[in-house]
Amino acid sequence: MPLTLDTLAILDAIDRRGSFARAAEELERATSSLTYAVQKIEAELDVLLFDRSGHRARFTPAGRLLLDEGRALLGAAQALEDRARQAAGGWEPRFALALEGVLPVALLLPVLDAFYALGQGVALRLRQEVLAGTWDALASGCADLAIAGGEAPPGAGLKTRPLGSLEFVFCVTPGHALARLKRPLNSTDLATHRAVVIADTARNLPLRSADWLRQQPRLTVDDLPTKLAAQQAGLGVGALPRWLAEAEIAAGRLVPCALVDGNPRQTFHLAWRSGESGRALDWFVQALSRPDVFAGVLDGV
Known about the structure:
Mean pLDDT: 89
Number of helices: 10
């Protein structure tokens, strides 16, 4: 095959530097060797890559096409080299982190920024899941590390590390019938009022839901912002994570209601698959295990 990455690199250098001589200087080669390489590829392809009729050789349309398409190949080749070096150094070429959807993404942004500062070129994927969906993403290989609520599914071969617990506050709109009761609510009180719930994103594991929701009519939504908007609009009631509920209560958009059994809590874990290894995994496990990462959102275990 006449076309090589070396030839494409020559064309790229000529275009960027503006002449054969300057390209040769960058590539630390004789100008004559670049001229010969270009003439050889032109002869083998039977295509003129440069218009030499003027003072300075210019790319022909065919030459420009070869250059533009060839740069994509050069970029892919460089990326492949980088991934090979990463693998040799123990770094994963790609790393996916799954976050339970009731936790604020903002908590992870400083951690991601610190990881990018390492300059290892690992392609990161941050995905949000809900309830069993977070465990499902990890167990199925869609995520390499998860911040998940509740207990790990039995037999999934996962390692876990507790991060803390999150309190949920039952909230309704001001003036709602449940707020006017002025006492802790029981399951009978809740049964006739529509609950706004976030859909479990599990694909393979059994779906999860709160026990006190089972007898209620419900509006199911896809994420926490939609759940909040629905509750603000009076479309239903439900529990919100304390970090979010406090802001809504302070603003007067929602009011809290006590429950007979107290506010529900859920423990969150950092989890990864047993037997997995890699420098990115090790780094994230250590970074996300620091208490300050989830301070103000999760209470200590």
